[in-house]
Amino acid sequence: MYKRVLVATDGSSLSDKAVAAAIDLALLTGAELVSVNVAHIQPYGYFEGSMLLNQTDFEANQKHVEQAAQRVADAVRDTALAKGVRRADAVVMKSNQVAEAIIHAAKNQDCDLIVMASHGRRSLARLLLGSETLHVLTHSHIPVLVLR
Question: CDD domains annotated for this entry (predicted)?
Fold first, then answer.
């Protein structure tokens, strides 16, 4: 059925439910699993919405963010392999546009399903905070499985 499943994770307990479901689905269908975490690109100066940092501090901060993202993606990959998924990869995307990065990763990794969690926000919270999951749902040409 599925050959390659992408699971988007941020390391939260809610995304852990999506990870568990994606691993189970990969095991059930014999699919490969791709774990994706998006590392936010940090603003560099006042005009980008942050305090001005010197280049060394900026690079150290960005490296820390990327390493944390890699640890989250690697943990999912390692869990999937330990449970018997035949192949699992860990990918970190660097972007401030989370939904677009997830869609791009799914295309680049030749995935035929995206699995992700939804916070289930409603009304004003949804309007103010937006929804990365909704953006993926409405812009992806790859099927999306959403879990709450």
Answer: USP-like
At 125, which CATH number?
3.40.50.620
Q: Six-digit token pair at 6?
A: 């992408």
pLDDT at residue 75, as a whole number: 98
For residue 131, the enclosing domain spans 4-147
Cα–Cα separations (whole angstroms), residue 137 to 5, 19, 37, 73, 113: 15, 18, 17, 22, 11
Q: Pairing relation of β-strands 113-117 and 4-8?
A: parallel
Query: What does the pLDDT read at residue 52?
Result: 62
Asked if residues 33 and 77 have their Cβ atoms less than 8 Å apart, the reply is yes
Q: What is the pTM of this model?
A: 0.86
- Residue found under tokens 């869609």: 103
Give CA–CA dist 122/140, Å, rounded: 22
Q: Can you give the pLDDT at residue 138?
A: 92
Residues of the chain with pLDDT under 50: 123-129
- Quote the CA–CA distance of 40 and 135 in Å, as a whole number: 17
State how far the Cα of 82 lies from the Cα of 119, in Å rounded to an integer: 28
Q: Please name every residue paired with 36 in a beta bridge, in sequence order, or none if there are none.
A: 8, 91
